[in-house]
Amino acid sequence: MGKEECKTMLDALNKVTACYRHLVIAVGGTSDSQNLREELKKTRKKAQDLAVANRNKLTTLLKDKTINKEDRAEYERLWVIFSTSMEFLEVDMKKALEFGQEFPLNVPKRHLIQTGMCGSTSAVAARAMSAQNMKYEADSSIDVVDLKELENEISQVGEMMEEMEMKVNVAHWTVEAKQDPGAELKSTISVGASSIGVISINEESKSGCEPTKVLAGVIFTAVLLIAIILAFCVIKLS
User: Fold this and answer.
1) What does the domain layout of the chain look like in residue ranges?
2) Can you tell me where the transmembrane regions are (predicted)?
3) 1-107+114-177 maps to which CATH number?
4) pTM of the model
5) DSSP string spanning 128-154?
């Protein structure tokens, strides 16, 4: 029961951190707005709450001397995944801070990053927050106040990661993966409605060029070129 609960909590953290990364890349682009900054704030805090819950659960289990060798190996594997997710979250929080400082909302609108993205980002944040709709309170200084909070939270995340290493000593290189690299991409298991997207290997393979289509394209191009040459000759002779 403990392993399944840990996997569920860790899966939730991974999805929220992925949503947060998706939102961060929109800062300074055509989708940037006060709503986006609110979404970033709410998603970031949700990720931190899940991180604390994961840390407490895994720390308790890994400190338990009564668990068998197989369970301990599984918990250590989950710990490595958790610590890696925390590293990604810290990097994205630092990136959000840097972008927020470079592109404040209280200056004339000028999109310096042309990401090609447009429209609302509420759907992404709603997935992370497990909510259908997200409403925001008007706050014209969110890009000033929130950046100070973000700076403090980055320090807190760094301190938590250091504390994790001191409490639980799990060397990453000693943990063996249970799947081959990229095996999760071939899985047919549904990731649920909260996932950001679905990658289908079969669809990608079907989209490749088939030999018959390539041959037909070559023949069509050759016929077209001959027709153009003949038309040019007729016009020149006339």
Assistant:
1) 1-107+114-177
2) 214-235
3) 1.20.58
4) 0.63
5) HHT-S-------TTHHHHHHHHHHHHH
